Amino acid sequence: MSINVAMIGTFPPTQCGIATFTHSLVTAMRRHGTGVSVIEVGSNIAQSVISDPVVLRHRARNGHVATWQTINAHDAVIVQHEFGIFDGSDGQDIVDILSNVHIPIIVVAHTVLKAPTSHQRKIMQAILDTAHAVVTMTFTGRRNLLRHYAVAQEKVRVIAHGSADLRVTQHGLRQGQRPIVLTWGLLSEGKGIEWGIDALAQLADLSPRPQYVIAGQTHPKVREIQGEHYRVSLTHRAMIGKVSADVEFIDAYLDAPSLSQIINSADVVLLPYDSKEQVTSGVLVEAIVAGKPVISTRFPHAMELLGDGTGILVEQANPTAIAGAIRAILCNNGLRQDLQQRAARKGAMFLWPAIADDYVTLAQELIARKSRRATEHQLAGVDTTLITLAPTGS
């Protein structure tokens, strides 16, 4: 069944993880043969000419009518949701928009807060009540949603975070060259990179000494408020730890070819995040798809994907544990090869074409259900002009 889908969320040139996610999903769904149009949101949207696949830039307040009218011209809508990307208090804008949408609504929950404020809970509950399906990217996210919000089990689907095809031919440690430990992504406090730097100071006896590459620019919203405070603090920390020569910062927003090249060069990927509640990490998925040995702190998504031995898990804020894991991988060929093989086997399931197929299948299912209900009402002699699809479980 050929369908046309509206996608609402941030979109490049906005530089954030959701914009990248939206772009990747739209591209993969279009290659699948599905029609997809983007309604772009964000307070800092560039004023350049709109170009395909963007058909509308949502404007707060007086732009609501144009937005929901555009959405309703499609067969279904996929909403990329995180509180910070929509206007209004805690992103209330999206609730007002969806209240006027009469086609199947799929909400992708990028963040599932276990302890929201009362207003955040109100906003999220309104979104859940309106949606016909809610997608989380991990089973942990699904459990949190069901445990902390009023939502029917059958409404919540798990579709993994996708990744570009970063698979490479794996290599051993390059003779005579420094092994590379890599962390990448937008920089902000809470990424735990200081613990990776401290760990490096405990590996000075290795020959050649490992190099820690930190790739990515400071998150634009963080830079607006704090400037480069976090990056400067990391540079200072490396100097105090006498590892400045072993730490390299790549201060740039990485396009797909650049990211692929950097990941390909890495011997170990390190995710030293401070959070114990992060239920989704695109970087983690990309590292697994690339078939790299991964060291990560114990946040929920990492425990879900690496807990079977696909990677090494360490406690948060523990540079000694990080150093021990790096040493084990660099000094044990068997362990390194086993981690590479485990990651490579698991990675194929996260490629964007497979993920896009899951979203298309879900949209088709909801559209078909709406059509069946409309037909049933017609047979019963009911006016169907305002028939909408009741959310699953209602």
How are the SSEs placed, and which strands pair?
Blueprint: E1 4-9, H1 17-31, E2 35-40, E3 54-57, H2 64-72, E4 76-81, H3 93-98, E5 105-109, H4 118-130, E6 133-136, H5 139-148, E7 156-158, E8 180-184, H6 193-200, E9 211-215, H7 220-226, H8 229-240, E10 247-250, H9 256-265, E11 268-271, H10 282-289, E12 294-297, H11 300-306, E13 312-314, H12 319-331, H13 333-347, H14 352-379
Parallel strand pairs: 1-2, 1-4, 2-3, 4-5, 5-6, 6-7, 8-9, 8-11, 9-10, 11-12, 12-13
Tell me what the structure shows:
The chain is of the alpha/beta class. The chain has two domains: 4-162 and 351-379, Rossmann fold; 180-349, Glycogen Phosphorylase B (Rossmann fold, 3-Layer(aba) Sandwich). It is built from 14 helices and 13 strands. The chain has helices at 17-31, 64-72, 93-98, 118-130, 139-148, 193-200, 220-226, 229-240, 256-265, 282-289, 300-306, 319-331, 333-347, 352-379, and strands at residues 4-9, 35-40, 54-57, 76-81, 105-109, 133-136, 156-158, 180-184, 211-215, 247-250, 268-271, 294-297, 312-314. Strands 3-2-1-4-5-6-7 form a seven-stranded parallel beta sheet, sandwiched between helices. A six-stranded parallel beta sheet has the order 10-9-8-11-12-13, with helices on both faces. Helix 10 (282-289) links the parallel strand 11 (268-271) and strand 12. Helix 1 (17-31) crosses helix 14, helix 6 packs across helix 12 (319-331) and helix 10 (282-289) packs across helix 13 (333-347). The protein is elongated. The protein starts with a strand and ends in a 15-residue tail after the last helix.
